[in-house]
Amino acid sequence: MLPLGDRVPDVGKIAVLRANGVGDFIFALPALEALRAAYPAAEMVLLGKAWHVAFLAGRPGPIDRVVVIPPSKGVGEDPDIQENAAELERFFRAMGQERFDLAVQLHGGGRYSNPFVLRLGARMTVGLKTPDAPPLDRWVPYIYFQAEILRYLEVVSLVGANPSVLEPRLVVTKNDLSEARNFVPEVEQPLVALNPGSGDPQRRWPPEKFAVAGDALAAAGARVVVTGTEPERELVEAVVNAMRFEAQNLCGSLSLNGLAGLFSRCRVVISNDSGPLHVAAAVGAATVGIYRCFNLITAGPITRTRHRPVASWRLTCPLCGQDCIRTPCGHRASFVADVPAEEVTAHALDLLASGAPPHDTLRRN
After folding, report:
1. pLDDT for position 1
2. 216-237 b/e (C-beta count within 10 Å ≥ 16 → b)
């Protein structure tokens, strides 16, 4: 049971710091939904990145407004970046004028993010804390091995926010679906997406194994598309070229909004542990995710009917053999390459054969 703290009285405006990647935002959605339910009349302002503005514009959800934060050490940026002190001073002056009643830190252990939140001047602060971070008014100890979704739900419970949902969910808009249809028209065949990219090369399953899974799904009657961003073109083309069956190359074709629209139509999405995997699950697709064992603990799905995580238990570098649990060696070779194609394929075929279409409840008609 989550420890339920007292609600903060007279809250008219809430700031939430979560200025990082796509998957990171998805993990925070249940906590944001809980805050919205606990403080229904409050304006909720996400302190985030430019991509949040484009992705959340016109999308129903718990966030009312996005403010893009300037580059700040350790807060969505590398701790060694050169800050613009004058720009940060202007930002915090503007945030002080917002007169936030509650500031919520959902951005890591707090070494850098807690001082950032304290400068907002909110009446009450709540968040996470490592031993080297300054305390907020209410805080939860940051321990790495905790499911991210539950971590942020625990934080907001300190201000009286009960969970209303446990799995992240995103509303799919008409514009999302329209963009996706421009590239992938509606067909009777069940749609399956392969997403071979990841910002971390250590999380990338080999393209030839994606191709094996793609061929099996195509042979079972699915239409296969392969997604990726422009920097991932080589990976996407390697999958498409290795397949015996035809697959549509969508590399660089869709915005994140269009990708959400596409995934909402997919019977199954196979992906490395990455932002697109978590978007797919949040818009209602069944997923097969490929994880490093540690990441499965923090980022894995919490249910198994529609989501099948497959883990690699490798702890040593495949190039030099060093135990990388505590001391990374610096090599970027894949730690998930040994995940069997047969295991991923079996899960994907089972989900395809279940006949369960993507959830329609999240779509905006």
Report:
1. 61
2. bbbeeebbbbbbbbeebeebbb
